[in-house]
UniProtKB/TrEMBL annotation:
This is GTR5 protein. One of its GO terms (cellular component) is plasma membrane. It comes from Sylvietta virens. One of its GO terms (biological process) is D-glucose import. It is found in: Membrane. Pfam families: Sugar_tr. It comes from the Eukaryota. GO terms for molecular function: D-glucose transmembrane transporter activity. InterPro entries: GLUT, MFS_dom, MFS_sugar_transport-like, MFS_trans_sf. Its main location: membrane. Keywords: Membrane, Transmembrane, Transmembrane helix.
Amino acid sequence: YVGEISPRKLRGFANSTSSFFWSLGKAVGQISGQRELLGSQSLWPMLMASCGLPALVQLVTLPFFPESPPYLLMQKGDQEGCKKAIRQLWGEGQHQAEIDDIMKEKATMKNTKILSVLELVKEPAFRWQLYMIVILTATIQLCGINAV
């Protein structure tokens, strides 16, 4: 959601910060799970319940956020809703350039062929990206953090 609602020039930054905070959350979980902090038998319920606080904050706040402007324009075709969401997210101002970018992206998506998984694996242009994703995902799964 954050990647979609951010302006185009900040989209890469917004998408990459999610993985940073994911890693930071895992590190904080490991540190707080140490026996000296919340890792004792009497404090385990408190440690396990600490996951509920961010979930509760999201549950309460997310209904007040607008739909993603690209979703409104590309999927629903609601240009007025898109403009309203952009004004609510980014403030008043000239946002026609962003709307035009979304329209160009929509036109590009119409002409793009959607690949099946097998076609994606066979496509040489995506091979290195696919290797990197597989290696990173395997590393995350095999590092032992999920077992902890």
